[in-house]
């Protein structure tokens, strides 16, 4: 499902879609910034000219292997320079990357390869103690149509990426044979951010995605002097394009690949490379803020900390500038399209209490009730959106598309939000994060925000737990600080803040960490399952 032709024509007339492909964008940037550093990975520093040449050589090598334009290539690489080399090479070959994450394992990768009829699968040999070559061997046994496995590093029984690149001496001749790529066609497949089931595939075109990249770079103030630290998994939508690695390259800046998000690794890179901007998820922001006062590393170059991927509480948001000495920019978006930013010149109250406003005046945003009727400003409702970079349908998912898109093309995001009079979104949570406690609706994020104000709470996640009488009660999973509070103390604290009695958690569980999804978000699905199992086992013991 794509944009109606009359809508696409309007976006072109307005100059939103400019007919440029990713391969052409890099070529243009390499001509402008040939000798500037494009990407840093450990001790390696590639210029724009070198990245451009590497992409050509990979593209030519893929074509020689028989990977045809339009075929799919599953890319599962960690935060290394080869990630950019490979995806630009795949684009130049006219093939389509399918972006997998390092955390994916056999079930997901097998599904991606089967569902997209992938011709090739690109991996690192090992990362984080995991051997991806063994995973690839398993996938190939299950997916006979997967013709090639290409490995960065020791290939084992597969093919080394080093063997695929054509020699530099053959580059010019190979470039002449590269296919013409249509910017209006699908460029790649992202993965849906949902935490249930196998991710759905999100088709993005060169035209729509590059519009969001260009506008994101502009909104975030990127210049050739910008240095972006890629901390989150590089293939995820947020660190890829908001403004991410692609926005940084569009601006002529430098991308620094961070192999681990921990403060000791990331802070060292901030100091060494004089990083100016990076993007993290709320749990990581909290960890960084806890570590920053005691670090020996110089973080003074950091100008902007983006926090996105999930709701960032106002209590935590207010601490970013005092603790890290940089501006906070909240980001709220989705791989399906719509991206919102607080602006760098917004008043502090907007920055800490909202999740921003859309990239473009051409983004259409509706907030509606359960019957799709618009709600007044300031009232919570379901977020629907359509626009020049929001998809009109998932790949080969007609049943899901009927549920997720309105007949006139609005995407049902599944988010519960309210709008401020200025047009900023306040994220109240996911629809499924609303806890129905005997008919009283409890917004998990509201309770989390209050608990985070307690000095003994480092992080918190509130979920529903099954209850025979009320249907659901609330459970707060708390990562304690030092000293750790008691549950009764937190209950008393919430009452003291004037929180309604039905919103005070019925149960508090202290934990050392939260389970996470593959992109670093708190997995509330796992937390709900954990407390449900605990409740069931308690009932069994009582009945015994």
Provide an overview of this structure:
The protein is α/β, with parallel strands linked by helices and 544 residues long. Among the domains are: 22-28 and 47-181, Rossmann fold (3-Layer(aba) Sandwich), CATH 3.40.50; 438-543, GMP Synthetase, Chain A, domain 3, CATH 3.30.300.30. 35% of the residues lie in helices and 24% in strands. The chain has a 9-stranded mixed beta sheet with strand order 2-1-13-12-14-15-16-17-18, with helices on both faces. Strand 1 and strand 2 form a beta hairpin. Helix 2 packs antiparallel against helix 3 (48-65), helix 2 (22-32) packs across helix 4 and helix 9 (206-219) packs across helix 11. The longest helix has 20 residues, at 524-543.
Instruction: Give the C-alpha Rg.
Output: 24 Å
What class do helices, strands and sheet pairing give?
alpha/beta
Number of helices: 20
Intertermini distance: 55 Å
Oligomer: single chain
- Unreliable spans are none
Please specify the SSE layout and strand pairing.
Elements: H1 5-13, H2 22-32, E1 37-41, E2 44-47, H3 48-65, E3 72-76, H4 81-92, E4 96-99, H5 106-116, E5 120-124, E6 126-127, E7 130-131, H6 132-142, E8 148-152, E9 159-160, H7 161-164, H8 171-176, E10 186-191, E11 201-205, H9 206-219, E12 227-230, H10 237-241, H11 244-251, E13 254-257, H12 263-273, E14 277-280, H13 282-291, E15 304-308, H14 314-317, H15 320-324, E16 327-333, E17 339-341, H16 348-353, E18 357-358, E19 364-368, E20 381-386, H17 398-404, E21 411-419, E22 425-430, E23 434-437, E24 440-443, H18 444-452, E25 457-467, E26 471-480, H19 487-496, E27 507-510, H20 524-543
Parallel strand pairs: 1-13, 3-4, 3-5, 5-8, 8-9, 12-13, 12-14, 14-15, 15-16, 26-27
Antiparallel strand pairs: 1-2, 6-7, 10-11, 16-17, 17-18, 19-20, 20-21, 21-22, 23-24, 25-26
